[in-house]
Design brief:
mainly alpha; 2 domains; three-stranded antiparallel sheet
Length: about 110
């Protein structure tokens, strides 16, 4: 009957969507910072050449990167380290230190 075929098709479609969602959730669990690393790579590629050259000399503070890529400092630091960025501490006498991040050598 027409109604039975329609219901069977809906169930098949729902099962496929459920499998896709489960696979996407498993991928996020397996690699939680994959999207963040991709966003960082796109952000860096979108920078003008002059700014990239300047960053190779001066580096970035984490706050500067967070303006473009929305993430917690902890997740952002881990993602930058996974992308082989280097970090150095900048000590200040009037407050806590900050970290300057250097992009990987091209």
């Amino acid at each position: 009957m027409y109604g039975n075929a329609y219901v069977a098709e809906l169930r098949r479609f729902a099962a496929e969507r459920r499998a896709q969602r489960d696979a996407a959730a498993a991928a996020v669990i397996a690699d939680p910072r994959a999207k963040l690393r991709e966003a960082l790579t796109q952000w860096q590629a979108a920078l003008p050449e002059a700014e990239r050259a300047e960053s190779a000399r001066q580096g970035y503070f984490l706050e500067e990167i967070r303006k473009s890529v929305r993430a917690t400092p902890q997740q952002l630091g881990l993602a930058l380290a996974e992308l082989n960025w280097r970090r150095t501490r900048v000590w200040r006498s009037d407050g806590p230190y900050r970290r300057r991040w250097w992009p990987p050598e091209q």
